[in-house]
Design goal:
The chain has helices at residues 36-44, 47-51, 64-77, 89-100, 109-112, 125-129, 142-152, 155-160, 162-174, 190-201; strands at residues 2-5, 8-11, 29-33, 53-57, 81-84, 118-121, 138-139, 176-177. It is an alpha/beta fold. It has one domain (2-201): Dna Topoisomerase Vi A Subunit, Chain: A, domain 2. A hairpin with a 2-residue loop joins strand 1 (2-5) and strand 2. It is globular and about 45 Å long. It holds the Pfam family TOP6A-Spo11_Toprim. One of its GO terms (cellular component) is nuclear chromosome. It is found in: Nucleus. Residues 29-199 form the Topoisomerase 6 subunit A/Spo11 TOPRIM domain.
Length: 205
C-alpha cells in the first residue's frame, strides 16, 4: 500500500521482509524518525527529493518488521543511517531499540540490531545553538527519571556507546526534556534545514 504526500510517496514496509530479494536506491543515507508527524512534515517539504534519502518511522517503538527492514537496507545499500528522536528517556529507549535490539527479544537481537546507526538528535546543545524558547522545555517526570536510571545500568551502553551514555546522564542530571517539534517553533520547515546541516557538520554520535 502506498500514499502520496505531494511529490512524496510513502510505502508500508512489507510484512515478509525476508522475501525482498533486491533493493536498489540512489539514496545517500537513511533517516529514521521517531514519529509519523515528523515524517509527514519532512514529506511536505519534499525532503527526500532534495536530500536523496530514505525516510523510515516506526511510529514510536519500532516493531520487528521495521527493525528487520532497516537492517536489510543497511546490508544491501551500504549507506549510513541516522536516527532523530525526542530528547527524553523514551526517545532514547527507541533509539537504543534500533541499535541494540529489544530487551524483550534479546534472542533475536543479532538479526535486527543496527549497531552502525548514528544518533542525529535532538540534543540539549541544540537549545542554545538554535535559540529554542524556554517554553519548549518540560521537566522529566519521576517515572521518566526512573526509566533513565534503569537504562544507565545497561552494560551495552558503557561498552558500545559511551557517548550516548554521557548524553543520557546529562539529561537525567538536568531533569529536562523537549520534543523534536520544538525545533520548528521558529520556522515550520526548520527541520528540513537542521537535518542536512547536522549531517554535514558531523553533529551526530
Amino acid at each position: 500500500m502506498s500514499k502520496s504526500l505531494e511529490n512524496f510517496t510513502a510505502y508500508s514496509i512489507p510484512a515478509c521482509v525476508e522475501e525482498v530479494e533486491v533493493i536498489e536506491s540512489v539514496a545517500q543515507y537513511i533517516l529514521v524518525v521517531e514519529k509519523e508527524t515528523v515524517l509527514q512534515r519532512l514529506a511536505n517539504d519534499n525532503f527526500c527529493k532534495t536530500n536523496l534519502c530514505i525516510l523510515i518511522t516506526g511510529r514510536g517503538y519500532p516493531d520487528v518488521t521495521t527493525r528487520r527492514f532497516l537492517r536489510l537496507l543497511m546490508e544491501q545499500l551500504h549507506i549510513p543511517a541516522y536516527c532523530l528522536v525526542d530528547y527524553d528517556p523514551h526517545g532514547f529507549d527507541i533509539l537504543s531499540n534500533y541499535r541494540f535490539g529489544s530487551m524483550q527479544m534479546a534472542y533475536d537481537a543479532k538479526l535486527m540490531r543496527v549497531p552502525e546507526i548514528r544518533w542525529l538528535g535532538v540534543f540539549h546543545s541544540d537549545l542554545a545553538k538554535y535559540q529554542l524558547l524556554d517554553r519548549c522545555l518540560l521537566s522529566l517526570t519521576s517515572e521518566e527519571k526512573k526509566k533513565a536510571e534503569s537504562m544507565l545500568l545497561r552494560c551495552n551502553l558503557q561498552q558500545e556507546a559511551p557517548r550516548w551514555r554521557v548524553e543520557l546522564e546529562a539529561m537525567l542530571q538536568r531533569g529536562l526534556k523537549f520534543e523534536i517539534e520544538a525545533l520548528s517553533t521558529t520556522s515550520i520547515s526548520f527541520l528540513s534545514q537542521y537535518i542536512p546541516i547536522k549531517i554535514q557538520e558531523g553533529g551526530y554520535i
